[in-house]
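Researcher: Here's the sequence for the chain we discussed earlier.
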Amino acid sequence: MEFAVDSGTHRLVAAGSCAYVGGFSVIDLRTGRPHVRVQVASPMALATPLAIQRAVCGERIAVGSGPLVVVRKSAGPRPMAREAGSLLFLNGNTGAVMHRVGTPAETSDVLVAR
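Model: Thanks. This is the structure I predict for it:
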């Protein structure tokens, strides 16, 4: 599980690993209450390939300006050069996937410049 703090909005953003359970959460640090929660229907080991492809999960996370959250999605915790990966561009207010970008290899990290 990966965490990032958005100090401007006082939110903790978390993405669950694609190798385990997956999911995405945003917690308001002022109240301690969840703001957004995207759950995965089943553990990733039991999911179909299509469910894994559509799942919100990832190994690295970065917070951008506004509601933008970018998640590095890969099959496991360590990036594999011979495996295709993807970047998920999420709306941090809703957890919805705004855009997916496929990568020819799994990336090692993600950074959003504001």
